[in-house]
Structure formats: C-alpha cells, structure tokens
C-alpha cells in the first residue's frame, strides 16, 4: 500500500512541477483536472493515508515527505484543478475563475488570505502585476 501511495503522490508532485506554465506572458492559476495523473479522489485518498500514518506515528514527515508538503497537496488539488469545462483558456479569465473558486472556500481560508494581503498589499500588488493582472482588477482584489 505504501508503495502505491508513494507513487500516486510522486506522480502528482511531478504534475505540480510542470503547471507553472505561461500563456501570453501570464501565469496560469487554474488547470483542467485532465492534467492530473489520477482522479482527485485517488490523490486525496493517498494524501489522507500518508497524513494519517504520519500522525499515528507522531512524526513530522511520511516517507521523506514533510507534513507541510502533505497539507499543501490537499490545498493545491482543490485550488488549482477544476473540471476541464470550468477552466478558461484566456489568462485573465483564468485568473478571475481561480479567484472566484478561492472566494468560495471556507471563511477561515478567505480571512487568512485577507490577513496576508493586508500585511503586505504592495507585495501582493507587485505579484499580481508580474502574473499580468490588469491594475483595475488588482485594485479590486487587494482592497
């Protein structure tokens, strides 16, 4: 079982390393689920198995994978991958669709994002500018 879980998480990690693509000079944030090596449920189950095993053993890693990486696995799966038909090709529309999905997440996640943005609005503005988000949209997101 552990070998299978390692393979699933490793294959998913390989996909994450390749999704930092640019389209028209802009970073693409939302990706089609068809890019995933396995269905979301399989990756989520593998992540849950690894996390549960790590917690049971009282460790901070599983099979060489740190706890924070396992936590990020779950987050990136939900944040960055959507059904293919919900993923806009246009980079600006793609970012806005990503942002809408982010806003639909739990109030706790939204509150944490707002806290981070308020702590460094200039940094976030610069980051959004680098990925090609127009100023009027950036202002809406950062306010």
Please give a quick description of this structure.
With 143 residues, the protein is mainly alpha-helical.
What does this structure look like?
With about 140 residues, the chain is mainly alpha-helical. It has a domain at about 1-85. It is built from seven helices and six strands, in the order αβββαββαβαααα. α1 (about 1-20) packs across α2 (about 40-55), α2 packs antiparallel against α3 (about 65-80) and α6 packs antiparallel against α7 (about 135-140). The longest helix has 18 residues, at about 40-55. The protein is globular.
Mean pLDDT across all residues, rounded? 78
The level of helicity is 55-70%
* Backbone CA Rg: 17 Å
User: In percent terms, what proportion of residues is strand?
Assistant: 5-15%
Give me the strand/helix succession.
HEEEHEEHEHHHH
* Helical/strand content category: mainly alpha
Number of helices: 7
**Strand element count:** 6
Stretches where pLDDT is under 50 for at least 5 consecutive residues are none
Shape: globular
Q: Kindly report how far apart the N and C termini lie.
A: 47 Å
> Within the largest sheet, what's the order of strands?
1-2
Question: What is the makeup of the main sheet?
Answer: 2 strands, antiparallel
